[in-house]
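Quarterly update, task 2.4: fe (ii) ion-bound model.
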Amino acid sequence: MVLNTSSLQPPQFKSSIYLSAYSRINGMVVVGEGLADRHFRLLARAIPEDQQELERLAAMEGRHASDFVGCGRNLGVKPDVGLARQLFAPLHALFLERDRAGDLAGCLVIQGLVVECFAVAAYRHYLPVADAYAAPITAAVIADEGEHLGYAERWLRERFAAVETSAAAIAKRALPITLSILQSLAADLQAIGMDPIELLASFSELFQQALETIGFEPPAARRILAGAAAAMV
Ligand code: PL3
Ligand code: FE2
Ligand code: FE2
């Protein structure tokens, strides 16, 4: 049951309910940013012609991780990374599997499309309910994530004919993992003032748009998303 979180009241930043949910959500963000750093470094090794650019994107992710640790510290909470590591493990394992297989397109779909669309959607929904310390940090991070998404879109679009089949296959494997992460976070998201259903809707819209940007026809993009939703239940 999803509560209506669109009230005009700001969240109670000092309440224990807010702070304990925040430490788990903050843990997700810090772990996700740390993995993004590692994934872009692996991509930098795998795509030598873009090595410098990918190392720069990796360094941005490292900064996001420490900036968000700072947001927790400002509220007096430490990121709770236990659940986060568990929830991200399957996505990270899938990335490593595709990296070992030399499937660059698969790696870019996982980190560059799925994770980055998730990040953009999540941070956009967090921004209006963020405290005054976290809001400008979050706004700056959203712009960076857009750049990461843009890199992956460009790379995949330029090779669409060659990568279409593997991109669709990996999206179908990565999406259910992402949707189940979202499901596991639903209660904590609500507790910090975010609506998980609206977040899911924004993520789906962004991801559908990303698939179309790289070259999928709208019905094919819709089928990939629908397939993932069906794989969830
Ligand atoms: C890509 O650069 C990093 C991906 C991290 C994604 C984490 C998503 C976590 C979902 C909840 C986000 C709410 C924001 C709260 C900020 C403390
Ligand atoms: Fe990031
Ligand atoms: Fe990113």
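Highlight for this quarter: Residues 33, 36, 61, 64, 119, 141, 145 surround fe (ii) ion (ligand 2) (CB under 6 Å).
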